Amino acid sequence: MLSFFGKYKFFGISLLIVSIIIISIFYSILKPKKVLPIYQPTQVSTELVDSTIQHKKKYHKIADFSLVNQNGDTITQENYKNKIYVADFFFTTCKTICPVMTKNMHVLQKEFITDSEVMLLSHSVTPEIDTVAQLKRYATEKFVNSSKWNLVTGDKKQIYELARKSYLAVKDDGDGGPFDMVHTENFMLIDKERQIRGFYDGTKLDDIDRLIDYIALLKEEYK
Q1: 103 and 191 belong to one structural domain
Q2: Dist CA 141 CA 143 (whole Å)
Q3: Is this structure's pTM higher than 0.70?
Q4: Same domain, 95 and 189
Q5: Residues 106 and 149 in one domain
Q6: Which residue in 55, 30, 26 sits closest to 42, CA to CA?
Q7: Domain assignment of residue 36, yes or no
Q8: Cα 49 to Cα 58: distance, rounded to the nearest angstrom
Q9: Alpha-carbon distance values, 177 to 48, 160, 173, 174 (Å)
Q10: What is the C-alpha to C-alpha distance for residues 82 and 117, in angstroms, rounded to an integer?
């Protein structure tokens, strides 16, 4: 009896290894892939969403826009067509969270500098201060690569509507008046269909690491 088992021991071990490999392959095939959610206004806190769209359950997308970047170039949704991008709202004279957010946007710039599929977009919430010249100085100081990352200024009302009605990003319900101020630490991940796929705290490196991982995950959807 012992000689029988000894004779077939290696065969049994080999069969076990092959079985484990086959089961692992089937598991990887059958296991559902992780897919990032598509955020709709009804899924986001009402504090962050304009009252006119709080009821919206589907088909939410970033609206068309026309703004001007640090080089004086007009930037529209066409510049981000078929791109995955990260958006935020900032202002150059901010001394609190903006420097940290800009630093972390630079981390993303460095991470995806050779990846033409991924871009960055930062909107100034004080366009009356953040002129093209001011944005250019800031971009130079912060080593912003204009082929990857646009800092944009323009019509204040348009920017504020983008913040509240498109990016679902800020708690203030300002409408772009002279004394309004919208501001948020949020980074928004936008897919190629102009849909929101995630919100991340732009002041926390843990969230930036998670964002980098999720951009890679989002890219997998387009393969």
Answers
A1: yes
A2: 6
A3: yes
A4: yes
A5: yes
A6: 55
A7: no
A8: 14
A9: 18, 9, 11, 7
A10: 8
